[in-house]
Structure formats: C-alpha cells, structure tokens
C-alpha cells in the first residue's frame, strides 16, 4: 500500500467558558468554571484513523467521486479525543479554600488559648473537583433490521452473568456483573434470561419486558433457537450468499462500509470526582514549624461509569479511569520547615 500524506484535513473547535469566583474573605474563597467544547474534525495521523481509500472501492453512486468531498463524507465528525485523552463537551471544575471556624476568636473555641488553641485553631480545608461527560459511538456492526435508537441511562439495572461457566453447578459459581442498559443495543436472544443445565444464570437479566434492539444482525438468534438448528452457524451474523457473474455463489459478511450510524456520538454517562486536603502549621519555635497534611483523593469514592459498549451495557465491573479518577486514597504527610 502507498500512503499519501497531505494537508487536506482540518479541525473546527468552538469553546465557551463561564466562571464564578469568590475572592478569599472571611475565611472562604472558591472558584467554579464551566467549559462547553464543540470540536469537529477531519484530520488523521495516518496511523490510527481517517485513512481514506478510493471512491471506486464503494458501490457506484454511494460516495462522492471528488476526493475532498469524499474525504469529508467519510470522516468529518465530532472529535471525542482518544481513550486515554478524551475531549468532553461539558466540563465543570471547581476549587475552594476554607479556614475551619475553630480556635481563638472563631465561631467555636473563641476563648481558647495556649495549647488548646494551638491544637484546634488554624486548620484549613481546600480541594478541587471535576465533572464531565463521556462519549460513545452508536453501534455499526449489524446490518439487519433497524428500529428506534432509545437511550435509557440508568433506568434499567441489569445483571450480566455470561461469565458463568457452562459446567457450573453451585450457586456460588455464578459470575454476574451488575450494570445498566444505557441504550437498546443488540443482545442475542440466546443470552436473554438464559440459564445453564444446572439452572444457574449465564445470560443477561433485568432487560425491560418490551426490549427491542435498535438494530439486529441480518440473521438474529430466533426465540427458541438452538445451536443444533439447521443454519445455526449463521445465527447472530450478517452473512449473506452472493451470486457471482459466473453463476457460483459465495458466503460473505455484508458490510457496505457506509453504516447509517457511523460517526454518530451521543453523550454518555457524566462522572465527577473531588479531592480535598486538610492542612495545619504547628509553630515549634520562632523559626521552626511543622506542617501536617491529610490528603484525600476521590473523597466520596465515586466509581464513575465507562461509556456503554456496542450492546448498550454500562458495566460496573470496572471504574471510569480517565482524568485521574481512581478509588479513594488517603495520604498523610508531616514536614518540618525552618
């Protein structure tokens, strides 16, 4: 293959920002920022995305023949960033600095002096936080019947037990992961409320009674279908039989390369995290003092949601790990300054 690199791409980005601030006074100061980012992209780095082919590779009349129009038709879409460096549309950041109201002359312990005032007075609480959205791509891996794309969010709590071994016989052998059906992606009929020979759950449970996937493969798994059925090898696939000019037939996986849901990115779950620090200086002598810090990262131990997969499931088996989202961590430090 020959790759031609040229300056035919571009990026359009509009950013709006709004700030609220309280200058530090009477022991309290804070800031909050809201940023709205809309980024559209027609640019690739040749190694991971947006590598254009030729119009001749598509069915006649389905794509523009002019290269610039062809390039835009295929690749102009929202820039959502990368897996390790996502680009949210909505982002809120905040920080604060607060002097706790303890000690001499404060709301609590106003008459404290000497040792007591040295212990309870002078504590400061500061911190920062972030709230942002995620993105997900509408599924483009099925080519059968299309329905209505419905977004449920956290309306339907599900249990995904497909990790349960087929040979499991004891209840403790069930392997179920909680999650949410974020949108009505395609979940095979064979996995809906299914159980193994011992009656243990090995499918997806909790789907709404009127569940209808937004799209299906050309040959979806039928109700009551079995792996021993005639033609079962084609269940849950997009395989079709094509007759060639010479009259012979070939089994191929249907894919025009122009799925109607390509380049579509709905907003995914919103996630937020807050870090905080408790700080105090203890004076030992006129020139020597001790600084004590207690830092808490992800104070509220928010797990965060990853974007839904192609089935529409947001799994709680792992936590959102971008933008420094981690489980709660505590860190204590003592420093001597002179």
Q: Mean of the pLDDT scores?
A: 91
The secondary-structure class comes to mainly beta
Strand proportion, as a percent range, falls in 25-35%
Largest sheet: 8 strands, antiparallel
Give the count of helical stretches: 2
Q: Total strand count, please?
A: 14
Order of helices and strands: EEHEEHEEEEEEEEEE
Provide a compact summary of the structure:
The chain has 338 residues and is mainly beta. The protein has 2 helices and 14 strands; from the N terminus they run ββαββαββββββββββ. Helices cover 5% and strands 34% of the residues.
Would you mind describing this structure in some detail?
The protein is mainly beta. It folds into two domains: 211 residues, no CATH class; 126 residues, no CATH class. Helix content is 5%, strand content 34%. Strands 1, 2, 3, 4, 5, 11, 12 and 14 form an eight-stranded antiparallel sheet that branches. The longest helix is centred in the first third of the chain and has 9 residues. It is flat and about 100 Å long. The N and C termini lie far apart (66 Å). The model has no long low-confidence stretch (mean pLDDT 91).
